[in-house]
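Box 3.1 A note on notation
Throughout this textbook, protein chains are presented in two layers. The first layer is the amino acid sequence; the second is a token string describing backbone geometry. Keep the layers aligned when reading.
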Amino acid sequence: MKTRSLLLIALCAAIPALACAKKPKVEASSQPAEPTPSVQEEEPVITEECIMNVSLFNESVKNKQYQDAYGPWWEVYNTCPNANKAIYTAGAKIIEYLYDNATDANEKDRLRHLALELCDKRIKYFGDDQRYPKEYILGQKGVEYCKYFEDDELKEAAYPWLKESVNGMGDKSQVSVLTKLAEVSYGLYKSDPDKYGEQFIADYSQVSGLLQAIGDNPASKNAATAKAQKDYVDNLFAISGAADCSKLDEIYAGMVEQSKDNLEDLLKYMKLYKRVNCTESYVYFAAAEAAHKLQPTEESAAGCAKMCMKKEDWRGAINYYNEAISLIDGEDDDDQDDYLYNIAFIYMDKLKNYQEARKYARQSLEVVSGQGRCYILIGCCYAAARPYAEPDYPAAKAAILNKTVYWAAVDQFVKAKSVDPTCADDADKLIAAYSKYYPTKEEMFDLPNELGGATFIVGGWINERTTCRPAR
């Protein structure tokens, strides 16, 4: 008791006399009664015992003795909730501890509602605080609701609190509040895309921009966290399917323009566009071109290659894809087989250089085996080839021998569906289409030296051994 008395004396000496004084009562008027005006609620009186209890629960919370802190905290919370902001910062920790350790369902429900009430009461008594105003506290309330009310799948009740907080705090918002707004908005969108689609896009744009601003602020202690959460929110948006490429362009065109000297940002935008399969967008091309000028990377070179393909600059696309391959960091790159296949496709479909097309298709298979698409591409190259020509062969003989390319082509289509069942339908259609053009029995009979055996090596650059079989 002696220690308690000394502490009480010290504390009372440190506070202004007005803090312990009661407000004077208003004497009743002797005038005739008039309509009663609204009476402002009287502030709770901050007593000496209240100050003592604030100190007691603060000390216990500092030592993480939350069970011991609850008694004096509860007393202060109910008798003088305007005494100190610590009632609310420490109270949140106390409630969290008690909730996590409670075993009774009714007690847990009481505590989670108390967590929300705590925010409301803080707004009432400290909502005009310059650093942590009402909007800041509403953000806390939204986060608390999402934490404690897990049984509410949509968390729709938290949305207006989070939204008002972000609108009011701007780039001074807590990163956790920004992230939670994006998550809740995403959940609402998934529940009803038609109703919440535009709202989610607007929320995403706002949250992403604010996280960007916080991440770019070297004075912010939350910069690294904001950058990490921006990547998470960007990915959330990418998988949502909420916006088509044109909507994405509306959001990011200005950002890309402002970031033309920022390689890190440009590469992030490119990755986002790649995630949502919007790599044909002019914004994606602008980001790729700007990034490549700053510092050529695999990602920027691949982006420039796609830009060239869009412009039908086939040679430029091949050069950029080859540059992307040369810039790959490490041997196990997820996109190398795609780059090689794209080069093969350009050579086959656009430049009609079938021998080069096969070369790159085979290189793609060396990186990732079992790609049915590569075997189909090679088969199409064979089907389009004419390795036998005058003056090496008489016209009639060349015409028959050139039909042997369809044997080699169909062999590739059969190989494609055997290694990759996903392309079986396409392979079957090609087999049916090209097997009709095999040499007939009569044509094979006319060339017994070449086509009279069981196998035949298709000539020219093809140089493939195949089985002789007549058209049906």
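Residues 1-39 have pLDDT under 50 and may be disordered. The radius of gyration is 37 Å.
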